[in-house]
Amino acid sequence: MASRLLLPKLKAGETVIADDEVSADEPCYMLTEQNLVWKEYPGTRRTQVLYVPRHGIVGIYKVNMGASEDFGSAGLFTIPGGLVTSTGQIEILHTVGELREIAHRLRESREEMPVPTDLVQLYYDQYR
Questions:
Q1: How many domains does the structure of the chain reveal?
Q2: What is the C-alpha separation between 80 and 91, in angstroms, rounded?
Q3: 5 within 8 A of 40, measured Cβ to Cβ
Q4: Which long-range contacts (CB under 8 A, 24 or more apart) does 107-112 make?
Q5: 51 near 28, Cβ under 8 Å?
Q6: Phi, psi torsion values for 59, nearest 5 degrees
Q7: Distance (Å, rounded) from C-alpha 25 to C-alpha 99?
Q8: Which domain holds residue 105?
Q9: pLDDT tens per residue across span 52-100
Q10: Fewer Cβ atoms within 10 Å of its own Cβ: the N or the C terminal residue of the chain?
């Protein structure tokens, strides 16, 4: 677990684009996996977005993970790595590496989930 890092209050919409690299031991406020359009590629791409503290504010780092359709039933998700305190400061509790490990496990577990069954249809099929 990352040491607790407090950042000052953020102004609405205040972000910076992070550097080209982030390391596994860096504090991380949040990780999301979304399907986004990248101008360099056709269609949508599965994108991991990391929110990391940079220069006293939260920076954004994006990773193109490949074509969205390659991720099958793995849903989109958000994993918090910190919280906003009652004073409006951001407290970081996890690292990039920890959140990436959680994301990997979520992706694997969702791919293994069975397809939902329509219980109502099964009932009508059985008792008609």
A1: 1
A2: 11
A3: no
A4: 107/33, 107/71, 107/74, 110/73, 110/74, 110/75, 111/72, 111/73, 111/74
A5: yes
A6: -100, 155
A7: 11
A8: 5-127
A9: 987 777 888 888 899 998 887 778 899 999 988 888 888 899 999 999 9
A10: C
Tokens of 61: 């780092």
pTM: 0.72
The residue type of 111 is E
What is the chain's length? Answer: 128
DSSP state of 58: E
CB 74 within 8 A of CB 111: yes
- Confidence at 101, pLDDT banded by 50, 70, 90: very high
Token pair, residue 76, equals 């989109």
30: which 2 tokens?
């949040």
What is the rounded radius of gyration, in angstroms, for the C-alpha atoms of the chain?
Answer: 19
